[in-house]
Write a structure and sequence with these properties.
Helices cover 77% and strands 5% of the residues. By secondary structure, it is mainly alpha-helical. The protein has two domains: 57 residues; 247 residues, Type II secretion system (T2SS), domain F (Receptor-associated Protein, Up-down Bundle), CATH 1.20.81.
């Protein structure tokens, strides 16, 4: 019997690989599903060796999310027009502005012409087509509804991209203001304070505590300010190493979730992403349990990922989805209730879609409120800092003026 090489996702959402001896590919898929794994790629070992040899020189190319959305829309359009798959890829590649997309689509088309499926061909380019994308395409191919799946994928990626952009924009604005304020204060401490300090010390007057504090800060910044970026880089590298570990990410996200206001916002963003992904996968024909496992593999939030892993185990034992969601204590009550209603009514797919829309709107309002609150708070803090610096410089100047007047 032939030996098949496989790649799959565990119930925890981690990638695993191995080999199985079986009469055909369908038998391997059945065995993997029986072991609780979600098959990602199953090929004959001889074919796998050939693929690795052919792709050894390929670079891990990246594609912008906007370009992936555009490609998915184009695929949906050409497939609806009943254009053959290889011809559709050739048309899109010929019109693509991105050199990366042109190269990748050409290679995907060549793999398909050699007998590979679209999903397997895309699987060879993980920097362009994420695992979730590839698995959804696979379900569309197997169900004969690839054009519909492409439409759902385009909507899903677009919604996810908009959500991520809004969240990042909300973070960039206050970060930019704070950064500019810190640079301005640092400039004053490093270049202005040393000159003013000489004037103050020559006067011999007793300086106010605010001025003495500012002089000390200026002296530190001028002589030992290099320590700050080194400490900052050290903290950044240390946090990056901690967050590479599953336990480190878990405790980090537990800390974030425990913070007032921030924790609720992170929870809402997480629920929105889960609902969007679940709705897209269920609409593409992915079974609910497999969809949950795929979702768990795409999340950065280790707390939610661990909870979903436990939920998958309970769903596999026949407990349904809503009950384990409630027992986890990680998800909002409204989310759990809506999932329960969808499960009992047999409309789980549409209910996840409604949840995604509702929470997406809630997140947008939260972002607007966050920005509207942060702006006056940051301006207020900056005003206090500027006032402190002005007083620290003005008070001794007034004292010097009075002394010279006498």
């Amino acid at each position: 019997m032939p030996i098949y090489s496989y790649q799959a996702l565990t119930p925890e959402g981690k990638e695993t690989a191995g080999k199985l001896e079986a009469p055909d590919r369908a038998s391997v898929l059945k065995t993997l599903k029986g072991q609780g794994l979600v098959p990602v790629d199953v090929v004959d070992s001889a074919e796998a060796v050939a693929k690795r040899a052919a792709g050894a020189g390929r670079k891990r190319r990246k594609l912008k999310t906007r370009e992936l959305v555009m490609f998915t829309h184009q695929m949906n359009s050409v497939l609806k027009a009943n254009i053959p798959l290889t011809q559709a890829l050739a048309i899109i590649a010929g019109q693509a502005e991105s050199e990366v997309l042109r190269e990748v689509l050409t290679e995907v088309r060549e793999d398909i012409e050699e007998g590979s499926s679209l999903a397997d061909a895309m699987r060879e380019h993980p920097g362009v087509f994420p695992p979730l994308y590839v698995n959804t395409v696979r379900m569309g191919e197997e169900g004969g509804v690839l054009d519909q799946v492409m439409a759902q994928l385009a909507t899903f990626i677009e919604s996810s991209y908009e959500l991520n952009s809004e969240v990042k924009s909300a973070m960039y604005y206050p970060a930019a203001i704070v950064g500019m304020a810190m640079l301005s204060v640092s400039f004053i401490l490093i270049f202005v304070m040393p000159k003013m300090t000489a004037v103050f010390l020559e006067s011999g007057a007793r300086l106010p505590w605010a001025t003495r504090m500012l002089i000390s800060l200026g002296d530190f910044m001028s002589t030992r300010g290099w320590v700050i970026p080194i400490v900052g880089v050290g903290i950044f590298l240390g946090m990056r190493e901690i967050l590479k570990q599953e336990s480190g990410r878990y405790y980090w996200y537990r800390l974030i979730r425990s913070l007032p206001a921030v924790g609720v916002f992170v929870q809402k963003v997480g629920v929105t992403r889960i609902a969007q992904t679940m709705a897209s996968l269920l609409q593409s024909g992915v079974p609910a349990l497999d969809a949950l496992r795929l979702v768990a593999g795409t999340l950065n939030d280790a707390v939610v990922r661990r909870a979903l892993s436990d939920i998958c185990d309970k769903v596999q034992k026949g407990q349904g989805i809503a009950r384990p969601l409630a027992q986890s204590g990680v998800f909002p009550t409204l989310f759990v209730q809506m999932v329960r209603v969808g499960e009992e009514s047999g409309e789980l797919e549409s209910m996840f879609s409604h949840v995604a829309s509702a929470y997406s709107l809630d997140v947008r309002y939260a972002i607007k409120n966050f920005v509207s609150l942060m702006e006056p708070m940051i301006i207020g803090v900056m005003a206090v800092v500027v006032m402190f610096i002005v007083l620290a410089l003005a008070l001794p100047m007034m004292q010097i003026g009075q002394t010279m007047g006498h």
